[in-house]
Each structure stands twice: as structure tokens, then as C-alpha cells.
Amino acid sequence: MIFDKSWEAIHYLLTGDIADGEPPLGYVIPLNENVETLAEPRAIMSVILTPEQVREAAAGIAPIDAAAFRELFDFHAMVEDELYPLSPDEDEKELYEYIWAHFSTLKTFYQEAKQAGCYVVFEIC
Fold it and tell me: Using CA atoms, how far apart are residues 94 and 113, in angstroms rounded to an integer?
């Protein structure tokens, strides 16, 4: 599954932080120390989530629908905090739709991974 350049924005909106975030929402895009880092030379970061962490992430994002996600979206704070790959001249509506589309896909992915009892490997290349 590829999330293009939306990963940092999704993590930020869920956790309020660029590079950390408490579980279970901090597991969705795992940029925290509560996950196991893998040795992967081609990646900037590679981590693995256990089936339990996947279940927690899926449960954490399950109630976040379009209205709840819209409430989390703060374009000005995202620009101010210099989230990748934003710039001040971004179109706010297009950016929201782009991030929402990727979050919706991610939400479905976590629900399916939870049902299957899977591990999830998250990699930033």
C-alpha cells in the first residue's frame, strides 16, 4: 500500500505531533518509539507492528469518519509546523481531499489487517 506524501500529515492530524504520538493513534503511522525498527538499508525508516498493535490502531481510527477527520484538519497549523510536503501556497481544499482519500484507504487497510491477524510493515523510502 502506498500513501505517497500524505503519511506525515495523517500522523500529525491523528496525534498532534510530527514525529511522535501515543498509541493507539500513534501506531497508525508509526513514528514513535513504541514500535520495533527493522534493519532495511533501502528505507529511511522501516518498522513492524504486531497483530496487537494493528488491532489497537484499527480500533483507534475506526470511529474517525469524514466529519471527525475534517475537525482534525488544521491547514494553518500544518503549514506553520512545516509538514512534509506542504507549502503556504497549497490549495487547502485540494490538500484536505488528498489527505482524506489516503486516510480512508489506510483505515480500510487496518480493518482488513486486523481481521486477518496480520503484522504490518511500515516503510518510508
Answer: 29
Give the 3-state secondary structure percentages of the chain, helix then strand then coil, rounded to 5.
50, 10, 40
**Residue 16: all three cell numbers together:** 498532534
pLDDT digits (tens, 9 = 90+) for 28-42: 988 766 555 555 555
What is the Cβ-side half-sphere exposure of residue 42, based on CA atoms within 13 angstroms?
2
Which own/partner contact pairs does 71-79 have at CB distance under 8 Å and 24+ positions apart?
Answer: 72/13, 72/14, 73/13, 73/99, 74/13, 78/9, 78/12, 78/13
Give the residue-averaged pLDDT of 16-28: 90
Give the count of alpha carbons within 13 A of 63, CB side only.
5
Over residues 31-74, the pLDDT tens digits come to 766 555 555 555 567 788 999 999 999 999 999 999 999 999 99
Helix (H) or strand (E) holding 36: strand 36-37
